[in-house]
Design brief:
alpha/beta, Rossmann fold, 2 domains, two-stranded antiparallel ribbon
């Protein structure tokens, strides 16, 4: 049995998939965790505001119409120090955006629940990484620094990632320039760099 802490932890698990929410919550409780669940982003925000500090937040990125990472953009004052993204969304921009917002680790939903527990156990023994985070590599069966996990030639700079996120929101070049306080020329330079690194040849769609 894999313990994720030396004693009971208060865990907030935010996921809109009932089966995953139920199954993993039971496994966490069996390992001594006090687990509170939320299916909606606003419910999670209220739980954090109204409850004692959680030790850990497990956060899905895709919460139906909501993006779970919104919780990290303006976190409540008593937000847990450790937020682990547990999601089927594995696109590097979203994962690295989560780390930029302060997430501690990322575990893909594609692995078996027992392996999720192994990953959580491994994360409990890791220090925080400045300007990065821990990614569970299912092939290596180990945690990897995100800066080593993603191919360096394909990783966007922080500013390119900001542009990418606004492109995904469907914004036009002028709107992005206004939002980021940059010239249209600079935005288009960033867009060319994004296309070169990621191989995209059209505007990005708004989806997860």
């Amino acid at each position: 049995m894999n313990n994720i802490s030396n004693g009971p932890k208060r865990v907030l698990f935010v996921d809109d998939h009932p089966l995953v929410l139920s199954s993993l919550s039971e496994m966490l409780r069996a390992r001594g965790c006090d687990v509170v669940t939320a299916k909606r982003l606003d419910d999670a925000e209220k739980l954090i505001r109204d409850s004692d500090t959680f030790d850990l937040v497990l956060l899905d990125i895709n919460l139906g119409k909501d993006n779970g990472l919104t919780l990290l953009e303006s976190p409540p004052p008593n937000m847990a120090k450790r937020v682990v993204m547990l999601s089927g969304v594995t696109e590097q921009e979203w994962v690295l955006h989560g780390f930029a917002l302060g997430a501690f680790g990322f575990i893909p939903k594609s692995i078996e629940l027992e392996e999720v527990m192994i990953a959580l156990s491994a994360l409990s023994n890791k220090p925080a990484l400045p300007n990065s985070g821990w990614v569970w590599d299912s092939e290596a069966h180990d945690l990897v620094d995100a800066s080593d996990f993603f191919p360096r030639h394909s990783v966007l700079t922080p500013k390119e990632r900001d542009v990418f996120m606004l492109l995904r929101d469907g914004k036009l070049d002028k709107q992005i320039a206004d939002d980021l306080g940059l010239s249209i020329h600079t935005i288009r330079v960033h867009i060319r760099a994004i296309k070169r690194k990621r191989g995209h040849n059209r505007r990005f769609e708004q989806n997860f």
